[in-house]
């Protein structure tokens, strides 16, 4: 992407990556992405964020189309994941006098990522950097989505630089949301990006939105996807809606199961019957082999308590069970009650293996789990009901 002027003395110097289809090895990005970075020129020349190391040469070329690298005074790092910090070492090799402005956590991460020391200025929230002809304000906004994150506000232009926040993996060559041809696809990706990156940090999203809500913003300059001009309020509203908890919601229990011959299904049904009789909880029962995967994971993450059942095949739970267990939002699983159950033929490893995974996710595992050898007996089913009941009691406390 060539350098683009966004406002008086503010330039985009980032790069496009239209061919990317999987971001961070976990996130589908069907419309590519961009690694945005910005240059503010004037009495002091300031870079905001760098780019993925793979694109350093293009980034450098973009900067040098406006100013020589030796004339850069400051580098502001709003967040330090390597897609934004990857080029710091190379950049500062060319101009070691550049001073990096960032949070304390960001300083720690940059030092460990580059394995070298730089000139740092650790900012406080609200601190102002006077550039002589404009001033920049730092708004510390942690856990959006790392502990290091902050926003940078430029009152002169009305631009707020938010790094990942309010961004999208959507490669728009003009870098402006006013030029989007496929707005519906873009908004789909806004949602996908929010769920993957900010879904685990909803209270912090609300706090971040509150920190910028009264600013007279003319442009939101994120680190991925188009800058927001027409969508400034729309995206903030969407983030707020998606992050606001449902009021007075009833407690939810999700029963997820995979069954080869119906024996584990019988245990799941026994739990469902028991819990459905409780008018204080909403219970969902999902066959994870046949249900849409995203719905299964969403049900697990939204539940206040999780019961997961699996048969054992060749001394393990089947792959679909691990796929679900590896997709759970570990940030918000802590202390929620969880249990495991399953029928087996030979040895029944699935239940203790699922227990181990749930405990590593920091769920509060209930009891030992329930296992039945082949077809559950009436006694097995009664134990399953009792087990489910004890989980319901935990979330009603
Ligand atoms: Fe785009 Fe959290 O890095």
Folded structure, characterized:
It is a single chain. The longest helix has 19 residues, at 378-396. This protein is 33% helix and 23% strand. The mean pLDDT is 96. The protein has helices at 56-64, 82-85, 88-94, 104-114, 183-198, 202-212, 232-243, 263-276, 293-302, 319-325, 350-360, 378-396; strands at residues 4-7, 10-12, 15-17, 22-23, 27-28, 33-35, 38-40, 46-48, 74-76, 99-102, 119-122, 128-130, 135-140, 150-154, 159-163, 219-222, 251-258, 281-287, 305-310, 337-344, 364-365, 370-373. It contains 12 helices and 22 strands. It has 397 residues and is α/β, with parallel strands linked by helices. The chain has a 7-stranded mixed β-sheet with strand order 1-2-7-8-9-10-11. Strands 17, 18, 19, 20, 21 and 22 form a 6-stranded parallel β-sheet that branches. Bound molecules: MU-OXO-diiron. MU-OXO-diiron is lined by residues 79, 81, 83-84, 145, 164, 223-224.
| Main sheet: strands, sense, barrel | 7 strands, mixed
Helical proportion, percent range: 25-40%
Total helical elements: 12
Strand order of the largest sheet: 1-2-7-8-9-10-11
Ligand list: MU-OXO-diiron
- The backbone outline, from C-alpha atoms, is elongated
Strand % is 15-25%
Number of strands: 22
Query: Whole-number radius of gyration?
Result: 25 Å
Give the structural class.
alpha/beta
Alpha-carbon distance between the termini?
A: 56 Å
Please, what is the average pLDDT?
A: 96
The low-confidence parts are none
